[in-house]
Amino acid sequence: MTATPAADVDVAVVGAGPTGLLLAGDLAAAGLSVALLERRPRTAANLTRAFAVHARTLELLDARGLAAELVATGTAVRRIGLGGGLSVDLDALAPRTRFPFVLVTPQYETERLLERRALSTGVDFRYDTELLGLRQDTGDAVELAVRGPDGHTRNLTARHLVGADGHRSTVRRSLGLPFPGRAAIRSVVLADVRLDDPPADVLAFTGNGRCFAFLVPFGDGWHRAIAWDRDHQPPDDTPVELGELRAIMLDALGTDHGMREVRWISRFHSDERQVPRYRVGRAFLAGDAAHVHTPAGGQGMNTGMQDAANLSWKLAAALTGRAPDPEALLDSYDRERHPVGHMVLRSSGALIRMIVAGSPAVRAARTLGGVAFATVPALRDRATGLITGIGIAYAAPPGSRRPAGRRAPDVATADGGRLYELLRAGTFVLLAPAGANGPATAAAGPATAAAGPAAAAAAEVPYLRRGHWRDPRRTTHALIRPDGYVAWSAEDPSPADLTRALATWLGGPAGGRAG
Predict the structure, then answer these.
(1) Sheet of strand 52-53, all strands in order from the earlier edge strand to the far edge
(2) What letter does residue 409 receive in the DSSP assignment?
(3) pLDDT class of 445 with cuts at 50, 70, 90
């Protein structure tokens, strides 16, 4: 699809990190014209701070045919050391997801695959291009002032704009949105190092009140090291030497694990901030442009990519005329994702404060919490579900019943396939028992999803609760959104009920409000 005469492109995405790359690729795959603006030159490497890819993000990449290739680039970590001899076994996630582990791989590997996909779908990459400002008083488009590689300023118009341009977001500032919050931790040392004697726990961190240290392998001989010293917190631009990192490791861990070589090393601070809303008119914010938080839990990049997956199909549906109520659907992005960002901010902040705690009482509480996390199944399942993303759910749409709003696990279909393979088409998927009332293909009729015809599959559809399949008698039919969440479900619906549900979400004569 091409842009309207009033706009140069359908969507302008600012920022070519993982969030912007996933979003742009999805939109172009849906037939939209997309310009991806990135201020870095094409040859400049992006700083690799993120290294953890959680289960829910891997599921979203699986729905784009990328998960297996990404997994091959890194290390699947199935146990996390909590210190004090405690650890968490992530294999307990196996009944809930195909990816019961944390994938440790450099951020550039994730970006490489997403960039390749975006290029293949026709995204117009504009590197060395800086957004200078924007205005939204031009009717059906957003007008952007951009400076290109030649240093000249030009205007670019887009039907919608998405700011995925990081914590210093020009889009956010141009929209006049505040970014309230505070600094959570300062002068954290970050490095990639080689070790002669790697730790036994694949993911291991330890804190003693004065400092903490964290080591994780990339699988290629390099380890990511993160360290902090309460008594030495110089400004972020103060040079860091390998000796400083070794000293903190020795204090926190009792050993530097034979640290002998550094690939790069830097110092940073971490804020806790969130914008009050993710949408202003035709402009949206996603990823670090909308929320930043501490690195505890490794959720930053994951949360941003999940923002992108939530927004992309909604923008595609609205811009291609396939949404019964486009404005309500677009508004649902903020309604669903803002609470998730707030939850991640609070949980990661609480975790980092426990890690750096100097008070003996707080450190004792941390130890007790670690024991409870490792040994109480309900608490462990809840916490790991939120950190990995597979336990995150949205509010059920008005008039619907659970499991609407919950993540759909990768159910097997009667033809030997999987739900997330079907989601690779970017469509809604209707799951129903073989031979059920109102076969999916007949009930759907001419209705279409965000990026094409709705897919239908025969499958047993058990009840969804917190990511598990439970009580198969309660749900026989489920309509799955393109982002892998349940839009609607029912037990033995009549053909009229099924047609009404499809029309509500996909458009048609019986349509209504969706989102």
Answers:
(1) 52-53, 102-104, 75-77
(2) P
(3) very low
